[in-house]
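In practice, a research group might receive sequence data for several interacting partners and want a quick structural hypothesis before committing to experiments. The following worked case mirrors that situation: the sequences arrive first, and a predicted assembly follows.
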Amino acid sequence: MAEFQKPRGTRDFAPEEMARRRFVEANMRRTAELFGFGEVMTPTFESTELFVARSGEGIIDELYAFEDKGSRKISLRPELTASVMRFYVNEMQNLPKPVKIFYFGNCFRYERPQAGRYREFWQFGAELIGAPSIESDAEVIALALATLKNLGLKDVVVRIGHLSILNKFIRDLKISDNAEKEARRLIDKRNFEDLRSMLDGANANDEAIARLIELVSLDGDEAIRRAKEEAGNNEGFGYLANLLERLRAYGFDNCQLDFGVARGLDYYTGMVFEIDAPSLGAEKQVCGGGAYTLADLFGGQEVNSTGYAFGFDRIMLALEKSGVTVPSQNLSVYILPIGDEAKITAIQILSELRNAGISADMDLMGRNMSKAMKYANSIGVTKTILIGDNELAENSVTVRDMRSGVQEKYPISDILRAFFKNIP
Amino acid sequence: MAEFQKPRGTRDFAPEEMARRRFVEANMRRTAELFGFGEVMTPTFESTELFVARSGEGIIDELYAFEDKGSRKISLRPELTASVMRFYVNEMQNLPKPVKIFYFGNCFRYERPQAGRYREFWQFGAELIGAPSIESDAEVIALALATLKNLGLKDVVVRIGHLSILNKFIRDLKISDNAEKEARRLIDKRNFEDLRSMLDGANANDEAIARLIELVSLDGDEAIRRAKEEAGNNEGFGYLANLLERLRAYGFDNCQLDFGVARGLDYYTGMVFEIDAPSLGAEKQVCGGGAYTLADLFGGQEVNSTGYAFGFDRIMLALEKSGVTVPSQNLSVYILPIGDEAKITAIQILSELRNAGISADMDLMGRNMSKAMKYANSIGVTKTILIGDNELAENSVTVRDMRSGVQEKYPISDILRAFFKNIP
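A structural hypothesis for the assembly, expressed as tokens:
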């Protein structure tokens, strides 16, 4: 019979990779909990309408869609914000505010697979619902940055913008809705050359074009200086200057402003931000988020919300490219019983070690000494325990330190002393 | 706009429940790693044929099936063994033996929802591939039992059988294949009354019926006595007696034999076992597994394997019914800044606590003292930190122990001393 293959665009994860992913997941979860966020989980599929309500009809082509036994149209989730906000509207609207929740889950995108893009991928995100916006925005950006810092991912760049600023400059262009949409797309891609010729073609006001391109081209300190200068004249600029002050209090004093962050979904209302890991090259964005109202779109009461999602797979890649390592998951001990009689003793010692929290395995294959040592070396254990006839006769075992090669005998009744030197 | 609802037969998990589930998941993962098993993950969907190859055509009605962009038939996984063995055949056949892997993932069953049965549910399982069967079987049952023991789930019952025994007694009935199948189903349900009348109707040999029903009715010590008595005559009985000796060496000295464990899937070959949590009542089975050959069914080389799957949702229910609690995930500290000036100081203290590994939150809602205290009590924090004008003037804060009500002042520069008394 021919082998079966995994579906196109999906992945299998082997133990070494999985251990790294679980370590990173646990680290991210720990940071969210330190910030007082609580984890939620929603179903892997939802009604197709929910995703359309969030993202528009265009999303349908990218969904894995099917019908349930009641002929209701359902789809695998392409992202998690819609599900989480649906859950909030159904069951959390009456909780004391703010509601601080995070999630980690797989998402599905029904598109032609490309390098680094998968049909099943993972997102780790957070939503803060129901607090005044400046407090929410600062706390949420701080959580995103603390998460990356606690993972050891240095040199990330956060770029923060405000849609009320961008929208004002775009409105001044006096162009059609479709042209506005195209302008946002080009701004988001930082393709200012095509932006200029597109706007020229759309008969936008020359001065407004120049002012827009000057704004979205502002870099680093220039952008911050502009925000401070204009703080009195324009609410958005003042808001961002205030936000930066709070982020400094959180300990993040090198946040950047980028008035060209557009995000591209209609439900974003104010602050928007993106985080890049420059080590990733062209596909460097690892996080996107902002302030939004979405609960009312889903039939709930209007409420201030701020949230973001990390692309978990990109974070894994960025950690790898940056040389961040995670603790080894290697087995500690390998036990080699020589002969049948030693097997039962080996099992007893095996269980004693595992009960004491030491990861341990024994030879199940009947390997001889030389093959067993080779195997023990290949899997990187710290110690090997040998149990042969001589040892059994003395009720003892030989413990070999695999790094130094030193062998010592221990009474079976005192085997834990080989691992915990200070047992009384 | 009307609210959206979650799909029928699915669940949302709120933070408290999610924290319990993640705690149990991490505990189970830790035990598997102590045993030298490594985690794998496979895609949420696979080719429909894979599941049919494992479970037969009958499975199709229970699958969430759709087509991918290449018109290939794919389905959400109804269980994980097929996926994991597919992964083994694709990429792990040439690894040194044994291959010890475990998994935790969601599965999907497209059936009419019933009480306690969900369309999306979770399994935690393990497979040991490529070792001689007695060693595999003992190690795998020991892992399942150690997992439950480490969770604090007492009073579970493991029932171990062997298909070579059951099959011999069934063959002696001399009935049709379909009648054999029906007999297995009734044995599995322990419905011996219907079994007897069905076998009478199928013209089975009277003596063989009596011998079969006597065998599968054997309880506790009777079954173990029978295995020892027959060990010399019947390979299966001898095997189980040997297996029980090994499980005793692992520290599990109250394993039961049950010659009626049938499992019902054709690829099981020898030892089969089930674990019950009696606290669950009628739906008490939390684990099922056994020895199988499946790799060859999927195009790989034939290889000894033993594995099992826990029903994770049933384990959660059993823990709850047994009163097993998990550590509280409550927030430790709530900071209340009084007035605008205090907010920036509050953020700085908040970040210092979180950086020190203390979970902390601050008031984002502008609550007054009395409302804030009520809120802090309701979320169960250990300490509240108050920052008002008096405190700011002295560069200090007031720390209130929420259990005792005692309040103490601490300099802001020394705030961690309120949490770590032995700072030099």
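Before designing any experiment, note the following. The CA atoms of residues 152 and 324 of chain B lie 7 Å apart. Chain B has two domains: 15-321, 333-418.
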